[in-house]
Design goal:
Number of helices: 11
Radius of gyration: 17 Å
Strand content: 15-25%
CATH class: Alpha Beta
Shape: globular
Number of domains: 1
CATH superfamily: Aldolase class I
Distance between the termini: 11 Å
CATH architecture: Alpha-Beta Barrel
Number of strands: 8
CATH topology: TIM Barrel
């Protein structure tokens, strides 16, 4: 079964709208795990627009084998930009996985994949920090063979394919994106990289992504939180897992 890591950023977005202590980010993580998710993903942005430092610290205490008081069977995946500030946070928090993403202050959400070739030096610095705390490094990239080939040279053990363009495309246009994903999946497998995917995925469009050869992990957040508004967080996760199985 492909691992599902639920991104709970927008639970924090809702909390921050009124600057309250609720909804609680750790409780949200626990509900996702109880419903069958294997990990929790959070994006600590430079502007702290949703997830904050204290959220990551509390999640670290209860998630993953590096956690001090919680579930060793779960994963804390920290999404972040490749900056010196974030390198120090990696050393302090010790996440199980670090996923590097491009970040622009004026974007609503991540708009595309990381250019690993152009940002090689910054990625190597993050890789060194990850090695110090035994965190796995993943690169969130476009389905581009050149980006995949450079990933293991930079210390990454996983690539996560950006599925946003696939999700936004009309159904007749999606096969061409899937063909590219399959080719990149085979290349990743040849290079010994784990394969993940994420962005824009939901119950309606996740099936073909699950069917991609060698797919190991999905990171899905916005659609889960939207579904949770109507039917509860646990049920939203269970329904997504059922769609993946189908």
């Amino acid at each position: 079964m492909i691992r599902l890591h639920v991104n709970i950023d927008h639970v924090a977005t809702l909390r921050n709208q009124r600057d309250t202590s609720y909804p609680d980010i750790v409780q949200a993580a626990e509900l996702c795990l109880e419903a069958g998710a294997q990990g929790i993903t959070v994006h600590l942005r430079e502007d702290r627009r949703h997830i904050r430092d204290g959220d990551v610290e509390r999640l670290r205490a209860v998630l993953g084998p590096n956690g001090s008081a919680g579930r060793a069977d779960s994963i804390l995946n920290l999404e972040m930009a490749a900056t010196d500030e974030m390198c120090e946070i990696v050393r302090r928090i010790r996440p199980d996985m670090v996923t590097l993403v491009p970040e622009k202050r004026n974007e609503r959400t991540t708009e595309g994949g990381l250019d690993a070739i152009a940002t090689r030096g910054a990625i190597e610095r993050v890789a060194a920090a990850c090695a110090e705390v035994q965190a796995r490094l993943s690169l969130f990239i476009e389905a581009d063979p050149a980006q995949i080939r450079v990933a293991p040279e930079l210390g990454a053990v996983q690539v996560e394919l950006h599925t946003g363009h696939y999700a936004e495309a009309a159904p007749p246009e999606r096969p061409r994106f899937l063909e590219r994903f399959v080719a990149c999946a085979e290349l990743s497998h040849e290079l010994g990289l784990h394969l993940a995917a994420g962005h824009g995925l939901n119950i309606e469009n996740v099936g073909p992504i699950v069917a991609i050869p060698h797919m190991a992990e999905l990171n899905i957040g916005h659609s889960v939180v939207c579904d949770a508004v109507m039917k509860g967080l646990g049920q939203a996760v269970r329904d997504l897992l059922l769609a993946m199985k189908r």
